[in-house]
Design goal:
single chain; mainly alpha; two-stranded antiparallel ribbon
């Protein structure tokens, strides 16, 4: 029997390769917290839902934030992402990456309605996250960033550093997914700990 290899178009090959890379690189979404897996599996589709969570967190007596960042740094990171969607990201992946792996990653997250990413991964080129800061200032900054985003016309939004050009609705979901991903692993504690 003679075997003829099946040929596929370059576009299909790049898409399939990107899917394989993406699936191999997407974390499980479970973060180790105090020796036990903890993930509230929050799912936000809008910034209003994210703001509700931020309001709840800002009133909590105590929060346990796993990983390398404290609450102020997490809030600063989330605010940076929203601000950069308006101002422009300091570094971007190549157009090829954005058009293949990046857009596939966003499509994958968007089809599931949530994202997973390394919760200690900095935004490429972003200023270092200051560990010294009052969480109240962090909550104020992210609320201000959300207002900035909401008041920016769609045609003035800048491409995402990895996903490329997004519509305003897509960007809102991406930001909402990002907040949900980080806040899923934050524990709300009573005042006794």
């Amino acid at each position: 029997m003679h075997y003829e290899p099946k040929t596929i178009s370059r576009k299909v090959f790049v898409r399939r390769a990107g899917q394989l890379v993406l699936l191999a690189s997407v974390p499980t979404g479970l973060t180790m917290c105090g020796g036990a897996e903890f993930d509230r599996k929050l799912r936000f589709q809008t910034l209003d839902q994210a703001l509700d969570e931020l309001d709840t967190a800002s009133r909590a007596p105590a929060l346990e934030v796993p990983g390398n960042w404290n609450l102020f740094q997490v809030l600063s990171h989330l605010a940076q992402s929203i601000e950069f969607s308006v101002q422009g990201f300091p570094e971007e992946k190549s157009a090829l990456f954005q058009g293949t792996v990046g857009s596939l990653a966003f499509s994958f997250f968007d089809s599931r309605g949530y994202m997973n990413h390394g919760l200690n991964d900095v935004i490429p080129g972003a200023p270092e996250l200051n560990p010294e800061g009052n969480p109240e200032r962090g909550f104020a900054r992210i609320r201000s960033a959300i207002d900035l985003f909401r008041n920016t016309p769609e045609n003035e939004l800048k491409p995402h550093f990895a996903y490329g050009q997004l519509t305003k609705d897509q960007y809102e979901r991406a930001h909402a997914y990002h907040v949900a991903n980080h806040f899923s692993v934050i524990r709300y504690l009573d005042s006794t700990g």
